[in-house]
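Internal ticket #5521
Category: modeling
Description: The requester needs a full-assembly model to guide mutagenesis choices. All entity lines are attached below as received. Residue total reported by intake: 183.
Assigned to: D.W.
Attached entities:
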Amino acid sequence: MSHTATDTTPALSAHPFAHLGPAPYRFTSASCTEDRLLMLAMTSESVLAGRQDANVSGSCDHCGMCIHDFYHFKASNGTVFKVGSVCYEKGLIDEQTYADRKALAQAKAAKTKMATKKRHSREAAKISEALEFFKANQDAMDAAPHPRFSGKSLNDYASWMWERCGTVGKIKLYKTVREALAS
Ligand SMILES: [Zn+2]
């Protein structure tokens, strides 16, 4: 492994993930904390025993950092390991083999899919929060003025807007109503 100062040729065997198992590496699956919590809640202990994805929190097998999103890869000898997105992006870009490029593309696609899923569940939570808030504050909303029309209430405005808004608009409306009631 020792290199002299004049030896600039990198060793061919030094893949960043070589310490985790031999190349090539295949992407197998990705999971976020929410997925694992859900999976734990639905699976019996005996089934979970020995499963890699059964840990809710964990660390990257490459760098040891605490990670919430696990990306599982399989080395050519069958060893499965998990790394965070920072490490697979660096590790697989460094070594531009076809297998690396394929594994990288698959892991990135899984990352995008997971991010979309997380955003949707955050939005859904916000929408139910808004509905709860509106329900609990009907009287105050009836008493508060409409932002544009005299003789109408904030509640009229909120009902009218809610019917016509998409998810992002509803979340914005929730904020507007809270601010109007707080002022
Ligand atoms: Zn890492």
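Resolution: model delivered.
Comment from assignee: The chain has two domains: 18-119, 137-182.
Ticket closed.
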